[in-house]
């Protein structure tokens, strides 16, 4: 999956979302989550590659502050 999130706008009429912005994220994983207790913060997963795991690395969860 691309390492990005999509800012969308609800339509005033109809059922088609409008793409407002594509925001690149430093993530390698399929999960993202908003922090509902801290507006503007989103968490993402950086999955360790096979080589990183062999070298003792692990998956990481990172927090991003969005200023949009």
Structure characterization notes:
This protein is 7% helix and 41% strand. The protein is built from 1 helix and 5 strands; from the N terminus they run ββββαβ. It has one helix at 50-54; strands at residues 4-9, 18-24, 32-34, 41-46, 60-65. A hairpin with an 8-residue loop joins strand 1 and strand 2 (18-24). The mean pLDDT is 89.
Strand content bin: 35-45%
Q: What is the chain-wise order of helices and strands? A: EEEEHE
Q: How many distinct helices?
A: 1
Main sheet strand line-up:
3-4-5
Q: What is the total tally of β strands?
A: 5
Rg result: 15 Å
- Strand count, sense and closure of the main sheet? 3 strands, antiparallel
Q: Give the % helix.
A: under 10%
- Outline: elongated
Indicate the mean pLDDT: 89
The structural class is: mainly beta
Query: Low-confidence parts, pLDDT < 50 over ≥5 residues?
Result: none
Terminal CA distance reads: 23 Å
Question: How are the SSEs ordered, and which strands pair?
Answer:
Elements: E1 4-9, E2 18-24, E3 32-34, E4 41-46, H1 50-54, E5 60-65
Antiparallel strand pairs: 1-2, 3-4, 4-5
């Amino acid at each position: 999956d691309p390492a990005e999130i999509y800012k969308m706008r609800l339509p005033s009429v109809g059922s088609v979302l409008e793409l407002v912005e594509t925001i690149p994220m430093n993530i390698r994983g399929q999960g993202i989550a908003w922090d509902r207790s801290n507006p503007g913060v989103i968490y993402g997963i950086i999955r360790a590659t096979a080589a990183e795991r062999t070298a003792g690395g692990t998956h990481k969860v990172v927090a991003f502050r969005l200023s949009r």
